[in-house]
Amino acid sequence: MQHIYYEVGSLDKKCYEKFALTEDILMEHAASSIARFIEENFEKKSSVLIVCGPGNNGADGLALGRLLYKEYEVKLYLPFGAKSQMAKLQKNRVELLGLTLHEEISESDIVVDALFGSGLNKDLDETSLNIINTLNQLNTYKIACDIPSGINIKGQVNQEAFYADTTITMGALKVALFNDEAKDYVGKIEVANLGIQRSIYEEKTNIFLLEKEDMNLPLRNKKNSHKGSFGHLNVIAGCKKGAGIIAAKAAFGFGAGLVSVVCHEDIDLPYHIMQTHFLSDNCTAIAIGMGLGKYETEEIKTILAKEIPTIIDADLFYEEIILEKLKSDVVLTPHPKEFCALLKLCEIADISVIQLQKDRFEYVSKFCNKYPKVTLLLKGANVLIGKDKEIYVNSFGTSTLSKGGSGDVLSGLIASLLAQSYNSLDAAITANLAHTLAAKNYKKNNYSLIPSDLVEEVKKL
Ligand SMILES: NC(=O)C1=CN([C@@H]2O[C@H](COP(=O)(O)OP(=O)(O)OC[C@H]3O[C@@H](n4cnc5c(N)ncnc54)[C@H](OP(=O)(O)O)[C@@H]3O)[C@@H](O)[C@H]2O)[C@@H](O)CC1
Ligand SMILES: Nc1ncnc2c1ncn2[C@@H]1O[C@H](COP(=O)(O)OP(=O)(O)O)[C@@H](O)[C@H]1O
Ligand SMILES: [K+]
């Protein structure tokens, strides 16, 4: 897991005060990291256009130009001149070197966007917007310095932003890079150390970026076992039975020893999945909500009142009967629209999906502060898993998953782990990593995935 921060100002301050580093040293390391990336990936003499803004983001760009000068064909473009003290200092240094400034944007092998970084504090004016649009149209490799220009510190893209192939971010990972709106712009993310190893200046945080190593698959280590050793999941199927069946199949493929679909009508199920009309006596986990539609309220109340590990999905986020359950340890897996309904139901906020997507981290925090026992998994391009004060970010997901039924697979995977005695948070983290990494491993065209393909990939992880 890597650390993510809302802001890195306090980390910079620590470098200055505790380790006697200076702004100049920090900036030199920031620029050197980008220079190293270019040297490792591009041939000498390639042309590098560096677009520098008026503040310290631009100053990073100017320092980069100095470092690459003579080895590469450096073209510095400063549309707003140099305003911050560091920008003026770096500009003076490049001028002393004899590097002349360019007056316009021109085709180059590499473009570095050092226009605005963490200091973007207002809407882009027409000139900046034109620059960003022009850069986006260039058919070159694009590197963003710190954060693609146009993305603000919350990760919102209110007009347009630079489309980076790689973002080299300064000091530490920031929340802004992981908001869904930023995902199309940031490209591959790398972190530049600020003069000492990151682990020395990084402080405690409550936001974490999940890595592949955080996935703890339900691999079987004991030889002396039987099907009952791996739990019995009950999936409640409502009017759209397919959703429950998809979840049940995913759960079975992910290791649950027994899986039953609870349904009043007789339904066609694969031979290895059982059907019951009521909860099984030896049930070790419940999955409810997916495709539920209208269901007998009293019956749902009875199911939710059971002290059995439970995952709630889909239709139930619109129903008041779940409110009581939120006081207990339960997993919730809403997509943005369902989460907006839930926020309203819980009297936390009455917002649109657009408003939610602008501030995903904030609303997850608000919900988890009110319901600290709940594990909340907010779906999206980057999934956020919140529990009490902590948020875990999974950025492995891709648009391959944008299909009806993908969420039902995820519910099934989580439910499977709950049935196999994982705690709620571990189940949500491992199942979500498995879900996204399976989709990543899928080799056919990215428009073609169906739920059973996803389950097949999960089996191969
Ligand atoms: N902290 C550190 O130790 C380190 C920091 N580092 C680097 O510093 C960067 C932060 O620098 P920063 O604070 O100077 O802000 P920055 O992003 O350059 O923007 C401010 C300038 O842009 C202007 N401006 C803003 N919005 C605008 C708009 N919409 N349209 C037009 N103009 C707009 C704004 O104008 P003003 O508000 O003054 O009118 C001001 O002139 C950070 O991202 C990283 O790259 C690294 O070197 C490592 C060490
Ligand atoms: N563009 C995307 N990038 C990453 N993950 C995605 C993307 N689109 C969808 N997903 C994931 O696919 C799943 C979709 O779930 P959901 O919308 O509930 O589908 P359904 O209810 O039809 O099964 C979620 O886990 C979501 O995070
Ligand atoms: K930038």
Overall description:
InterPro entries: Carbohydrate_kinase_pred_CS (IPR017953), CARKD (IPR000631), Nnr (IPR030677), Ribokinase-like (IPR029056), YjeF_N_dom (IPR004443), YjeF_N_dom_sf (IPR036652). Homotetramer. In the N-terminal section; belongs to the NnrE/AIBP family. Belongs to the NnrD/CARKD family. Its EC number is 4.2.1.136, 5.1.99.6. By secondary structure, the chain is α/β, with parallel strands linked by helices. It folds into two domains: 22-204, Rossmann fold; 213-459, 3-Layer(aba) Sandwich (UDP-N-acetylmuramoyl-L-alanine:D-glutamate ligase). It is built from 15 helices and 19 strands. It has helices at residues 9-19, 23-41, 56-68, 85-97, 126-137, 183-186, 198-201, 241-253, 297-305, 336-345, 353-358, 360-370, 406-419, 424-441, 451-459; strands at 2-5, 47-52, 73-77, 101-102, 110-114, 141-145, 166-170, 173-174, 188-192, 207-209, 232-236, 258-262, 274-276, 285-288, 310-312, 331-332, 375-378, 383-387, 390-394. A twelve-stranded mixed beta sheet has the order 8-1-10-19-18-17-16-15-14-11-12-13, with helices on both faces. A seven-stranded parallel beta sheet has the order 4-3-2-5-6-7-9. Strand 18 and strand 19 (390-394) form a beta hairpin. Helix 2 crosses helix 3, helix 3 runs parallel beside helix 4 and helix 8 (241-253) crosses helix 13. The longest helix is centred in the first third of the chain and has 19 residues, at 23-41. The protein is elongated. 47% of the residues are buried. The mean pLDDT is 94. The structure holds ligand NPW, adenosine-5'-diphosphate (ADP) and potassium ion.
